[in-house]
Amino acid sequence: METKTLIELQKKGILLHRLVYVIFFFFRMILQFMSKDIKLQNTVWILSFLAFCWILEEVCCHNGYFNKLFVLQALRYVQCIFTIMMLCFISADDSLVIAMVAMLLMFFVDFFLTMRVNDKSTLISYMLYVSIPVLTVLVVKISVRHSNWWFFMFFNIILLLMVLFFEAFTFMDYMGAMDDMVFSQRNQLENIAERNEEILQMQDKLKNTNSALTIQKINLQNANRQIQMANDEMKAQTEILHYIANSFDVSKISNQITDAIMTVKKLDLCAVYIREKVYLNKHANYVIKTKNEKLDVGIKENISDIYQRMSECGEKEVNAHENIKENFPFLKDTDIQSIYIKVLCMDNDSYGLFMIGDSRPDMFSDNMSFYDAIIAQYDIAISNSKIYNEMQHMARKDGLTGINNRIYFNELFRKTIGEIQKKDSCISAALFDIDKFKNVNDTYGHLAGDEVIKRIAAVTEECIDKYEGFVCRYGGEEFVVALPGRNLEAAKPVITELFEELCRQVVQYNEYEIHMSVSVGLTSYPEVCKNPEDLLKRSDWCMYYAKEHGRHQICVDDGSIERE
Q1: Which end of the chain has less neighbouring CB within 10 Å, N or C?
Q2: Residue 336 has what pLDDT?
Q3: pLDDT at 13 over 60
Q4: Is 397-556 a domain of CATH 3.40.1190.20?
């Protein structure tokens, strides 16, 4: 038995000792009170012995002596000797014999457990260690006091020792038989092990067969995934083609394409950049999809520069998976490990940039046919949108200035008024014309007049676009400005800024400098005009009021101006 296990077993045995001590104590106390023949002196000796055993065990346990095997052995030996002495000297009371014998047996069992007997010679030695002191005490006791009782006690002790010897030898024989049985079982186990070895060899063959089947299964799964991926790609391309066929909105198409790529390929980054004036768009178009908000900002700040640099160098594409954090600093705090960038071209003219990235390394080294097909579809979308916008431009824009014509303005104005009324909001309108424009035509010619009108239109559109308004050439040298969502107080600074900017303009025509001046009328719904249909009429009245009262000014409608 392992020393550590033996020590733990002895510590648990302390609980049994406590129970025996308590029962013995109460048993003796009950006898002391119930029988007058019980000697008080014997009771005191018995209880002192119990206290001695208890205290001795507590001291050893508390100070950690039980962790040392020789202390346990010495403790059990002392307890056995003292128990036998107690049995010999103070067990004249017949009532104590059985209890003392029980305690002695308990200590004997603990003693032989701690001694770890392995053979019969060791067993005999330990039995002699216990027997010789006991027999010595008994012989001395009998020689001092001759008594039949002592002879009887001597006989009982000898009988007890014989029983212990017999049981111990029987136990040793039993352990020997157990060893033989274990040896037999070991032989059987060896035979079983040989058969198991054969079974293991068969299992290895089965395992190899299963591995081959697993590889085939994996190959089939990969083939199925590839088929599924091809199906998803074809489905995405079909949806994109359908969307392109039914829409000319490049922003929405870009969103549709980037969403399809992110869904099918499970990428971490997809972005499309279209420069300004590709499909008559005034501003560059950005569509960026990532899983990181900071990366969105970084791409938007850098994508136009990347496009410009690649276009100037004639570089068509970049496929990088090494040192990308150094080449593209905006990816520094991300886990992107692969990036692919392609300049978008149509009719040998670059118009934008396509960018994809992922945290998986070397992601874009092969199988790029899907992205090539998407880019080809995107070229179609841009071409369709360009043609559509050119047709719309011809129908909606003024031929000379390129801003909204009167027909489209009226359509846009009615639509805006409807939205304003639904939202219970407001709108301001300003109408202005060029002061003494007839003198410009008469003095410098109609071509010079056209240059003045174009300059006025360009400046007006650029200024009003900043405030989400819209303008049109209303006729001849007259222009209209609409500012949705602005009352008179909010519209005045905008119109004032426009007025000052227009009056600073100087058109160079041949050797002449043509300075400009305008008269402006401003009104608002529902602040002044209760009927939105009166907006243009009242702004026209205010404009004429400004012209009739000195020109080169802004007349703000207060509701009192009427046109005769």
Answers
A1: C
A2: 86
A3: yes
A4: no
